[in-house]
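Slide 14.
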Amino acid sequence: MKERTLLISKRLQEIATFVSQGNTVIDVGCDHAYLPIFLIQKKISPKVFAFDSRQGPLKQAKEHILDYEVDKQVELRLSDGLEALQGKEGQTVILSGLGRKVIQKIVEDRWTETGHIQEWIFSPQSEWELFYSFLNQYAFVLEDERMIKEKEKYYLIIKAKRRNLYPLRPQKFTYGTILIQRKDKIFQEYLEKKRAELEELEKTISGKSSSTVLIRLNELKAKKQQTQVLIDCISKK
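Slide 15: predicted structure.
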């Protein structure tokens, strides 16, 4: 019987390219197990542990892994974050499609039990600047970044590893270090869109004189300036 290839979103395909060949993967918040199935079908990973905190998605995931005949390579577990991790399982952890605070809590809650993990792949939904502060605080080393655009939405994907001996020095930029080095056009497009949104907000509240509005205006101006610095770095030849 010919194997049916699962078609997945561009975002999930990009995340899959960040996984080191041959690594056992722990996909936290696996939803319907599309990424685990893809990793097995493409022979990127020999084994995937698919964790989810909800029974509903796991039920759907079980149907999918049976349908695509990867039930021996994909193991499903009901798990709040990394709670179901046993011993030194896995080399790669994927935390994608979750909020920044949720991802940070998952990492913090199992920090001492995950020293063996070789690589972490993150794709927080929002608050990227704050997430980079967290990575610095917990002494992660940035290995790769990618930004993609899918259905008019921007996604940031980060690959990092832990450096447990001492904390990192603060990064020069809150995020985008590698994207700037590559002069990434999608990142530039995202920044220009963000700058326009900040300018529009600034126009909306300018002219008002309350102390709260003045504080907000100063915050917007600072963010706009930071965004412009990043755009200038990408544009610089």
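Speaker note: The beta strands are 25-28, 48-52, 74-78, 92-96, 119-123, 140-150, 153-162.
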